[in-house]
Known about the structure:
Glycosyltransferase, 3-stranded antiparallel sheet
Amino acid sequence: xxxxxxxxxxxxxxxxxxxxxxxxxxxxxxxxxxxxxxxxxxxxxxxxxxxxxxxxxxxxxxxxxxxxxxxxxxxxxxxxxxxxxxxxxxxxxxxxxxxxxxxxxxxxxxxxxxxxxxxxxxxxxxxxxxxxxxxxxxxxxxxxxxxxxxxxxxxxxxxxxxxxxxxxxxxxxxxxxxxxxxxxxxxxxxxxxxxxxxxxxxxxxxxxxxxxxxxxxxxxxxxxxxxxxxxxxxxxxxxxxxxxxxxxxxxxxxxxxxxxxxxxxxxxxxxxxxxxxxxxxxxxxxxxxxxxxxxxxxxxxxxxxxxxxxxxxxxxxxxxxxxxxxxxxxxxxxxxxxxxxxxxxxxxxxxxxxxxxxxxxxxxxxxxxxx
Length: 371
């Protein structure tokens, strides 16, 4: 795809962000009807609110428009209520919703919000299990509490804890991020590089009790977003914690590349070809591959990421082809939760964020490789 089309796609997404913020509706955008653009919102951000605020930070950094900056600052403050919830998804919430505001815009208040989130998250570390558990208030899980975990809890968590640990000289945060990432290799990454979404463990000994995929086609299948979250989590671990994570980051990325449909957009589960797509999982994977593109296998990873991003823009981003009947700037065909029939062909806020991050990087607007 030429740079002009990517620039057009960025413009459409920025306009969609502006439109969403101007609605002044209560709650954080969660998922939307692709025909009307109408959002279903969460009161305090659920597990996804950080991606909405992250989009606003990226928009502010890309445009230097004070309006986007003011919006990002305002919404970051609203995320603070989520710090009271016992959830591993503080990683998603406060990395994307606050730390990125400090990194891209030098926002001091955002830094304070992120540091507070990281300190509360680090305090949930289970020494026996070697990880921070899912927590009693985690959303969208089959089982929650202090004996459950899933691969979604690696991305966001690792960079948030390492970034905070370096900033406030808390080496224990960095150690906990490392142990957390290592333990999830054992719990969630199969020998062939495919990924199991979730696991249960004994509270006292940390012994693994079961591994399962509660959002996939079956408990044993490879759910697309689990694979994508693992790719992102270990790409971030490689960047923030070093070479010990290169092998696993490449292993989960290679598995994705080997199983990706030729047209560049993944099905919602790798064992459900010919069914629903998941553009959000594809966007996550693209963002992960672009982070790996800084390494020795960089060209291969970048080429696949570009293929996926271009496929998403050309076939799934509204407004790229003229139509008076559609709201422009929507990433369509995101599959939230096929098992329960929730938002199976919708705009999903985390998919939006990941596509925008990838486009800004590919178009040379912002270096997002460390985000």
